[in-house]
Amino acid sequence: MAFHYLARGIIRSDDHVLLVRAIGDAITFLPGGHIEFGEPAKQALERELFEEATIVGKAERFIGAAENEWFEGEERQAEINLLFEVETQLSHHEMVISNEPHLEFFWVPCADIEQWNLYPVALRELIKQNGSSQQAFWGSGISGNPMI
After folding, report:
1. Residues with Cβ < 8 Å from 146, sequence gap 6 or more?
2. Which UniProt keywords are present, listed alphabetically (predicted)?
3. If we measure between CA atoms, which residue out of 33, 15, 51, 25 comes closest to residue 118?
4. Which helix (H) or strand (E) holds 96?
5. How many CA atoms lie within 13 A of 128 on its CB side?
6. Would 138 be classed as within a structural domain?
7. CATH number, residue 52
8. What local confidence, expressed as pLDDT, does residue 135 receive?
C-alpha cells in the first residue's frame, strides 16, 4: 500500500478553474503535489505550482480536505488532499505551460466540471458550488468497505 499526502490548489479565473492531467490519461486533478516531510502544506503547494508550471501563486484560505483510494496494478493507493484557494495573476485566457513533459494544464468552465473526470470525485460538487462556503469541506472517495 502507498499513501500520498498532497496539497492542491483551486485556481479560478472568472467562471473557470485550472486542471491538470497526465498526458494520455482521462483523469484530471487540481494543481499541486506531494507535501515533503516537515514542510508546511501552503509552502508545498506554492513550491509545486512553481516547479510544475512556473505559476507564482499565494496559497490562501484553507478550503478543506478530500480523501481518495485506487489501485495501480495490484498495489492499493490512498491519498489525502489538503485544498487551498490560490491567489494568482493567471487568466483563463492564457495557456499554462507545463515544466514537466508528462503533465498538461488547461482551463475548464466550472459549470462543465462533470465532463472533465476530476478526481477525487467529491471535488466536482465543490468546484460547481464555487467553494463559497465558510465551513471546511470534507470529501471522500473511500467506500468504507475493506478492499483487501
Report:
1. none
2. Hydrolase
3. 25
4. none
5. 12
6. no
7. 3.90.79.10
8. 67
3-state secondary structure of 57: strand
Q: Is residue 147 part of a domain?
A: no
Compute the distance between CA of residue 18 and CA of residue 10 in angstroms, rounded to an integer: 7
Q: In this structure, what C-alpha cell is assigned to residue 25?
A: 490519461
Residue 25 domain flag: yes
Q: Is residue 59 part of a domain?
A: yes
End-to-end Cα separation, the chain, in angstroms: 11
| Opening angle at CA 86, ends 104 and 139, nearest 5 | 80
Residue among 6, 5, 12 at smallest CA distance from 86: 12
For the chain, what is the domain count?
1
pLDDT tens per residue, range 33-86:
999 999 999 999 999 999 999 999 999 999 999 998 889 899 999 999 999 999
Q: Strand pairing partners for 4?
A: 79
Please give the residue range of the domain that contains residue 78.
2-132
Query: What is this structure's pTM?
Result: 0.87
For the record, the C-alpha cell of 12 comes out as 479560478
Task: Compute the distance between CA of residue 113 and CA of residue 110 in angstroms, rounded to an integer.
Answer: 5
Amino acid identity, position 64: G
Peptide bond into 120 cis (omega under 30): yes
